[in-house]
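Anyone opening a protein record will find just a pair of labelled lines. A complete record is shown below as an example.
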Amino acid sequence: MLKGSLFTREFLSEGIIEYEEWKQIPDAILEEFQQNLLKTFAKFPTQGNPNEATTENDLIQPVLKALGWKNFLTQQTASPKGRDDVPDFVLFPDEHSKQKANREKKAADRYKYGLSFLEAKAWQTPLDRKSEKQYVDKIASNQMLRYLSRVETQSDSRIKWGILTNGARWRLYYQGARSVSEQFFEIDLAAILDLPGHNDGLFALSETDRQVATSPWGDEPAYPVQQVVIGINEQRVVETAHFAWSEEEKGFVEIARYAGAEI
């Protein structure tokens, strides 16, 4: 359900709860947030094949608003000339910042008032490989890396965070990471909400698997240094997850995930 090495596991499980910002969030607010997400996904055709526009309007925008991002502009080109780099959303901290951005004549100049941006893809579009109708340069993660560089420049380095999502998976990038392409943070929101077809089979590296794959001293991997977990449900491979040893994390981290297929 969680993927990437932008944040350590210790921070996500223990460190974050020590922040005052986290402590100030009442449990009732978190419960309300979860219920809002469930209602949003319940109305969305997750079993169908919604296009990008439908995914943006009926799923991504409601999730953004539930997260508190109520001030945003859509389809703002980040290039001084032409329309080669056009993220789907520019996210602003408040209405005043959005108003100041709207006073700018050039769309590219509006980024200096934002805090982040988001690139949206159609429901469950692959993020790290091309779909049948995509060219190599349109692979979502490659496109995102280009947007990060362009937006950082146009915002005078104000914006270093970007979000990439296909509705099911939400991925956070940081332009200041040592390896921007690999050190992201991804949440499988569809799996967390236990949507049909997103939690079938066993396709995670369990705690037992991690212990077996790690030396008794816990500071290095036992052979082999990469693990593949295949989730199977009756006559179908639900999903395959690929894990590799990370010296930085001192543990196995997910590096790839592949869609399922009939056996």
Summary: Residues 2-199 form one domain.
